[in-house]
Design brief:
Layout lengths: L6 E2 L4 E5 L6 E9 L4 E8 L7 E7 L50
Antiparallel strand pairs: 1-3, 2-3, 3-4, 4-5
């Protein structure tokens, strides 16, 4: 990544789809806003559309800490997901059944 404020006009590549016609959009140029944010300038590849637009790419959190952290970069560490514990569904034959130990007497 180039230093913040410097533009990159190297080889062009495809970026996100055009929000209007959904054709691939070409990245024309980009510039670093900060160490964690980059601004991209796009041009739609559909000549009938021709939309040009700007998008931002940003680093939002850390999954695994850097072995060479930069003192100016402060990113939250992503909480680890606890494994999902799935309880086996009870079989229908395990349902509790009422007992009829003392059925009502017809002659009582």
């Amino acid at each position: 990544m180039s230093e913040p404020g410097k533009a990159n006009q190297g080889n062009r590549s495809l970026g996100p789809a055009c929000p209007h016609c959904l054709a691939p959009a070409e990245i024309r140029t980009s510039r670093a806003i900060s160490r964690t944010v980059r601004e991209y300038y796009h041009h739609c590849t559909d000549p009938e559309c021709g939309h040009t637009f700007v998008s931002h790419w940003s680093v939002v959190r850390t999954l695994s800490p850097s072995n060479a952290p930069h003192p100016a970069v402060h990113l939250p560490i992503s909480p680890r997901r606890a494994p999902i514990r799935r309880q086996p569904a009870p079989a229908n034959d395990n349902a509790a059944r009422p007992t009829n130990d003392n059925p009502p007497s017809v002659f009582a």
